[in-house]
Amino acid sequence: MRRSRQFIVIFMVLALVMACASLQDKWNKLTPNEQARIIVGGFQKTLSSLFDTGKAYVTANPSKQTIWKTKAIPAFDAANQAIFLGIQACIEGKGLPSKMYDSIGPAMKAIDDILLLMGIPEGTIKNAHSSEWKEV
Amino acid sequence: MPVAAIIALASGALDLFMKLMKVADQIKGTEKIPTPEQLLVEYRAMQAKIDAEK
């Protein structure tokens, strides 16, 4: 009984390893431009989600209206412009995953910092990032 | 099986599971790679939301 339990655990771990390798292989077979488009799409979903989160928070807390207008909105604007540059690179066929992370990532981080400063809980902000692509 | 070995195995399995979830997310995306035009549509929609708040 104990031995079969050990066997099941080992089998499950091995199955996980093989599944990881197979999925990673699929990702690696995409062109850099395709990977970049997926990453940009993920950042767009996150940006929209963060915006909706911030807007809902400001509606419930009107005292945060000033920081929303003066800091958060310009940060969203900057991030969306960084995304636009990423899209342009993809249109030209020059999209690279690492470049997308390097150029859009800091702008997204700036938004996180401002939303935290406004008082939005860290967990809520993290949830908004769930659709983003991460390097494994 | 010693407790330390069970903990090590469980921790390794959890780590692998987390990694699998991240890769699975990526693969979900590979099934539907957005075209640059779709990305532009999303960009414009987002910009409209931002401009409305200015």
Distance N terminus to C terminus of chain B? 63 Å
Structural class designation of chain A: mainly alpha
Instruction: Provide the domain count of chain A.
Output: 2
Number of helices of chain A: 5
Structure summary, number of beta strands of chain A? 0
| Biggest sheet overview of chain B | none
Radius of gyration of chain B: 21 Å
Main sheet record of chain A: none
Strand content of chain B: under 5%
Structure notes:
The complex is a heterodimer of chains A (136) and B (54). Chain A has helices at 2-28, 32-60, 65-91, 97-118, 122-128. With 136 residues, chain A is mostly helical. Chain A folds into two domains: 1-30; 31-128, no CATH class. Chain A starts with a helix and ends in an 8-residue tail after the last helix. Chain B is mainly α. Chain B has one domain (3-53). At the A-B interface, helix 1, helix 2 and helix 3 of A face helix 1 and helix 2 of B.
Structure at a glance:
Chain A has 136 residues and is mainly alpha-helical.
Keywords:
heterodimer, A: 136 residues, mainly alpha, 0% strand, flat, B: 54 residues, 2 helices, elongated
Topology (elements, then pairings):
The complex is a heterodimer of chains A (136) and B (54).
Chain A: H1 2-28, H2 32-60, H3 65-91, H4 97-118, H5 122-128
Helix pairs in contact in A: 2-3, 2-4, 3-4
Chain B: H1 3-30, H2 36-53
